[in-house]
Amino acid sequence: MKDWKIIIIFLLMGLIGGCVPEPAALTVMTHDSFAASEAVIAEFESANNVKVNFLLSGDAGSLLNKAILSRNAPVADLLYGVDTTFLSRALEENIFETYVSPLLDQVPHEFKLDAGFNALPVDYGDVCINYDKEYFNEKSLRLPRTLDDLTEHEYQGLLVVENPATSSPGLAFLLATIAEFGSNGYLDYWQRLKGNGVVIVNDWETAYYVNFSGSSGQGPQPMVVSYGTSPAAEVIFAESELVDAPTASLVGDNMCFRQIEFVGILRGTKNRTLAEKFVDFMLSQQFQEDIPLNMFVFPVSQSADLPVEFEKFVQIPEMPAQLSMDEIAENRENWIASWREVMLQ
Amino acid sequence: MKDKRNWALLALPFIFLFVFYFLPIGNIAAISIRQFNSGDYSNEMNWRLTTSAFNFTVFQATLSTVFTILVGLPAAYLFGRYIFKGKDVLRIASTLPFILPTVVVAAGFNALIGPKGWINIILIRVLGLSAAPINILNTLPAILLAHVFYNTSIIIRVVGAALAQVDRRFEDAARTLGASSWGAFRKITLPILFPSIISAVLLVFLFDFTSFGVILMMGGPKFTTLEVEIYIQTMQFLNLPLSGILSFIQLTFTMLVTFFLMRIDKSGFSIPIMPRLQAEGMQRPRLIWEKVLCGLVTTVLLLLLVAPVAALVLRSILAADLNSTEFLGQGQVISLRNFQELFNNRRQSYFYVPPIQAIWNSLQYGFFSSLISLILGFLLAYGLRQDRKENRAVELLMMLPLGTSAVTLGLGFFTFFSQGVGSARWFPFLIPAAHSLISLPYVLRIIQPVLNSIPVNLRWAAGTLGASPRDIVRYIDLPIIWRSLMTAALYAFTISLGEFGATSFLSRPDLPTMPIAVYRYLNLPGASNYGQAMAMAVIILMVCVVSMFALDRLQFQAIKDSK
Fold first, then answer.
1. For residue A261, what are the β-bridge partners?
2. Domain containing B392: what range?
3. Do A65 and B238 touch (CB under 8 A)?
4. Where does A93-223 have alpha helices with state H?
């Protein structure tokens, strides 16, 4: 049975692979969508003689919940990626230490939601409905300009949205409808959407790649709840070079929901100085300009320039939907639960 | 004396289960209970939510299991009794679904039967229809289809392997005594197979019962199982008390079903199985009904199990023609660009995953988890040989991880093993432990029926002739159970390769597994991201095919050695 030798060699290789030591480290907990350029991170590492470890911890909700559950023995020094919809939970649970970064003066006031400076804004983005340009052209269909328009007969069965209980863009879109119709009127609106054949799926991947007709999945619905920057991503990640984006966003008043993402130093860190440096680094021009093409959101710093694809293919809503942090915190569970009762029963 | 040895055999599995199951789960349970006081959980909405999730879970799991049996048993019969063209390929192909991450399976089904899938496109062209005739995505049939797709291989492997071991002479004797061929099968072979059928059915049912990804992605939001609700309550609402209640219901039901099926199993009688050589008792289909069965089963398996995978492979090598934006047929060319792009860190991203690295990580995790679960499963199967009350309790205990939601398990690991900054560095080493927990019940269920059926007089005879207990294990037991050991290893390996739920709690971005790499590509819009996700999925497939061929070779090697 000479095969055992192969198995033993395998075993040894595994053991050796597992025993390589690592240098002093700073750990950053973040969501699965986090991305950055290798060179930018490397520069921070060599400037501060530290190895940065990233702990990708699911979507924004999962990320925060993991941080809360491990608060007694935090697994990381910083947490990046808590957004507007979850910020109040993070502040209530008191998981961050205060840090007033000098670089905050580059950040417009509207982004500084936490007056106590536990959570510092890093970037923002809009959740908007993307539409398939070709479909609307071919059918010479006019574009919906308000949320109300979506309930009209001509758009029957043309919109796919995500379940707010399982998807963060889904939750953001639900919040947009609440901003528009109020917490008393939104369920009525959703009833009308339901009557107009809105399609609901559980996650963004399915909505975008299976149901949406503007992506390479070529599904049946020409409108999808996605991100305002998705059209730019379609151009950048196209299989062949594209002159124009195949999709665009609907940016009527209250049709998009604006989410700001925050970073905070986790309470109990033993690397406070380094952690502060990392926060400053995230607000530095270099990192801020690296953000758009990696995470497809906008930098909060005024000094950061935007890439040309963002200028060309991203539509910016004049009046994005907004809800106060406290209102969201108080009602989030209820809103979702009632939505599920109405839409899924 | 004998008792002590049994407990010594069971010590290691017990310690493993204690450290990697009871401590983490206990930890998360303690957190839930601490939060319990802070709210009212018996309100009407929660009650409605729980009962409807429970009812639907049982309903869909029962239906899925029935359909899986309907497809799987005839296939198992064919695989256990006949030699036919393409058997090896089909056997390996039928195991492939098991490793595929759900998101990839969903993509495969979408490419095949989706609104713009190939079947619909063909039907539209041939019948001149204006809309897609097949619209089952996001419906109950899609869930059932995916469950049959995933689990048919369990029936084929477990029941088929047992059937191949049954001594044909029993049936021949019955025929000589005047029984019809159906009568001989029903009265002789079926009862012998009964324990393995029960084993397979139990595994399939529990798999369907705790299904998560399939329900989320194929069924859509209208369908909520306990597992899905646990995920929503835990990861979105941080409502640990409610998710704790749901977990408790799920676990209790799992235990009840296991207990019930074990009772049926034990009330039957067990006929000793003698070691059989690979092709002994196998024949080519000769009679008309045999040929019809062979043709029918092959067709069904091809359509159900192979076609979605083929659709996926095709999708991964199709790229848009540079001069056209049309989809399918006209606008597309065959190209390996998606695969080439995988090896190219075009955007200089910090989180770029070199495919070779992901493959290597997955193989390592897979290797260690099959090693761990094989050792533990082997010890357990030996320790539990006598049919005693306390042994049944142990067996029941070992099924616990299978009924535990992957989210609960992952979160348990996360909270229990996170001991401050830096501890996360060691999380990847927990991955094989988590995978072994999940595959151990499978391994045990595959080895146990075979080990228990070894006639005791074989060992007595060997003992009388002076063989030590070690010799008996080595020269009698091992050759007989070798095939099922390898089948078990294969399952442990494939479960590890495809597992996503618990892994996502423990993985580190610089040590991703292959399914994690697929998800990373799917996270962003853009045709090339989608294409690369599909290419990565196809690489998972290829790695798995190669591993399975290697394991198959090990099976035959052993038979040659023992000759």
1. A83, A123
2. 2-23+51-341+358-562
3. yes
4. 133-138, 168-195, 204-206
Span(s) in chain A for CATH 3.40.190.10:
3-124+259-306, 126-257+315-344
Answer whether B340 touches A (CB < 8 Å).
no
Using alpha carbons only, what angle is made at residue B329 by residues B327 and B331, rounded to the nearest 5 degrees? 50
Report yes or no: A303 and A288 within 8 Å, Cβ to Cβ: yes
pLDDT in tens, A42-52: 999 999 999 99
CA distance to partner chain A, nearest, from residue B457 (Å): 28
Q: pLDDT band for position A304 (50/70/90)?
A: very high
Interface contact flag, B424 A73, Cβ < 8 Å: no
Q: Does domain A3-124+259-306 have CATH number 3.40.190.10?
A: yes
- Choose the closest CB to B419 out of A25, A73, A240: A73
Instruction: Enter the ipTM.
Output: 0.80
Q: Which residue(s) pair with A26 in the sheet? A: A52
Which 3 state secondary structure label does DSSP give A32? coil
Nearest CA among B365, B349, B358, B311 for reference residue B519: B358
CATH of the domain at B245: 1.10.3720.10
CA B403 and chain centroid, separation: 14
pLDDT tens per residue across span B300-354: 998 888 888 888 888 778 765 444 344 444 456 677 777 877 777 766 677 777 7
- A126-257+315-344: CATH number: 3.40.190.10
Total domain count for chain B? Answer: 1
Place of tokens 């909520």: B224
Instruction: For Cα atoms B236, B241, B245, give the angle at the middle one, nearest 5 degrees.
Output: 105
